[in-house]
Design brief:
452 residues, alpha/beta, 9-stranded mixed beta sheet, 3-stranded antiparallel beta sheet, 12 strands, RHMD-like, Mandel_Rmase/mucon_lact_enz_CS
Length: 452
């Protein structure tokens, strides 16, 4: 390559990747009984040479649960014209330019605005830019963020609609304070990791025997918090929570998750009925859009905490949840909102209100991604892991080149450059839908047309 030529993004590939997790009821809950965890998988290709490793690339994805992943894939493809041709130097120096451009397309914005399938597509491309930038810098994303100057990080945030609560000056002040003592916290993170909790024991499809076995195993593995799915049948939930409490004892926290199942009155009555087993939080008790409903539930079920966030559309809704004192625990998701830039805004809002962040994870690759954001928050923003845990679900990690690792109930800090978002090539060739080797054979065996 001509050494004087500016390296550029040359293409945006997007692949529909699906895993048949519904066959074993992995991920089953009261609202989503049969998810096939899936990804609209994005690769930013460039002509920036990395020597023997080939051209520099950026990888990311939007997470879905099966049907409709083709819609998510099409949404990502619709952003291609805004990205191809961009300077690699420029986007790595300021990923916020890509975020602002993608969110600013007025015709595509009409499909949201800043919510739903289109916004998740923006998040996937923006996260791929951060993967590209971190690979180029030779750092994991959490380290790239933690090392950045407060003013540069503050400039990555879009303050439109949230400036009444968080200004750029506020962000800079929070980030400057967060820098104090960051070297010591980084050393602690590298040696001790970040606290995790596990949802693996608590899927609704599990028998009581499996629940007990997995709950006891979680405690033996060092977890101090587990989570159970609830919301299908009250008597069953009371019994399952009693069973789990007996299995883990009084000192292990048990969170419960309704996955948006209830109306407000139901959420209050159901949570109070479960209170005898001392649940730590009730997660997604009602619609993620119902800010005042969450506030009403919170007032009525205390001391059980209220947590939500994995389906919250954007920074504006998070701002209102915090303003309304509607939640005790804020749950960011790495792939729901508009990528790292918007999650940075949400982390700053949480820090400003003093509300702990306990990220949502699981799915396809969400554990791999969100650990970077939580670790940055600990090292260079909130400065604490008190009452903070990252969700962990033990499946599908083997499909990533830099899989999440949990030891003694704690996430280890990733050291490979990038966002830990790159899937193994053999995974894509096997689980690409509908023509990967697994799906082609499976759909043919079921007598189904393999065309989308």
């Amino acid at each position: 390559m001509d050494s004087n030529r500016t390296p550029r993004i040359t293409d945006v590939d997007v692949v529909d990747v699906r895993f048949p997790t519904s066959r074993e009821l992995d991920g089953s809950d009261a609202m989503n009984p049969d998810p096939d965890y899936s990804a609209a998988y994005v690769v930013l290709r460039t002509d920036a040479d990395r020597g023997p490793d080939g051209p520099l690339e950026g990888h990311a994805f939007a997470f879905t649960i099966g049907r409709g992943n083709e819609v998510q894939t099409a949404a990502v493809a619709a952003l291609r014209e805004h990205v191809v041709g961009l300077s690699v130097d420029a986007v790595c120096a300021d990923p916020g330019t890509v975020s602002r451009t993608l969110n600013g397309d007025s015709q595509l914005r009409w499909l949201g605005p800043e919510k739903g399938v289109m916004h998740m597509a923006v998040g996937a491309v923006v996260n791929a830019v951060w993967d590209l930038a971190a690979r180029r810098a030779g750092k994991p994303v959490w380290k790239l963020l933690a090392d950045a100057e407060p003013e540069w990080l503050a400039d990555q945030v879009d303050y439109r609609y949230i400036e009444d609560t968080l200004s750029r000056a506020d962000a800079v002040a929070l980030l400057r304070t967060g820098k104090e003592g960051s070297a010591g916290r980084e050393a602690h993170l590298r040696s001790h990791g970040y606290p995790a909790y596990t949802t693996s024991p608590g899927w609704l499809g599990h028998s009581d025997q499996k629940l007990v076995r997995l709950a006891k195993q979680a405690v033996a593995d060092g977890f101090t918090q587990i989570k159970l799915k609830v919301g299908a049948d009250l008597a069953d939930d009371v019994r399952r929570l009693r069973t789990a409490r007996a299995a883990v004892g009084p000192d292990v926290r048990i969170a419960v998750d309704a996955n948006q199942r209830w109306n407000i009155g139901e959420a209050i009555d159901w949570t109070n009925a479960l209170a005898e087993s001392d649940p730590y939080w009730i997660e997604e008790p009602t619609s993620p859009d119902d800010i005042l409903g969450h506030a009403a539930v919170r007032r009525a079920v205390a001391p059980v905490k209220v947590a939500t966030g994995e389906h919250v559309h954007n920074r504006v809704v998070f701002k209102q949840l915090l303003q309304a004192e509607a939640i005790d625990v804020l749950q960011i998701d790495a792939a729901r909102v508009g990528g790292v830039n918007e999650n940075l805004a949400i982390l700053l809002l949480a820090a400003a209100f003093g509300v702990p962040v306990c990220p949502h994870a699981g799915g396809v690759g969400l554990c791999e991604l969100v650990r970077h954001l939580a670790m940055f928050d600990f090292v260079a923003l909130s400065g604490t892991t008190d009452d903070r845990v990252i969700e962990y679900v033990d499946h599908l990690h083997e499909h990533f080149e830099d899989p999440a690792v949990v030891s003694d109930g704690r996430y280890t800090a990733p050291t490979m450059p990038g966002f830990s978002s790159r899937m193994r090539p053999e995974t894509i060739s096997t689980y690409r839908y509908p023509d990967g080797s697994f799906w082609a054979a499976d759909l043919t065996g079921q007598g189904k047309d393999t065309r989308i």
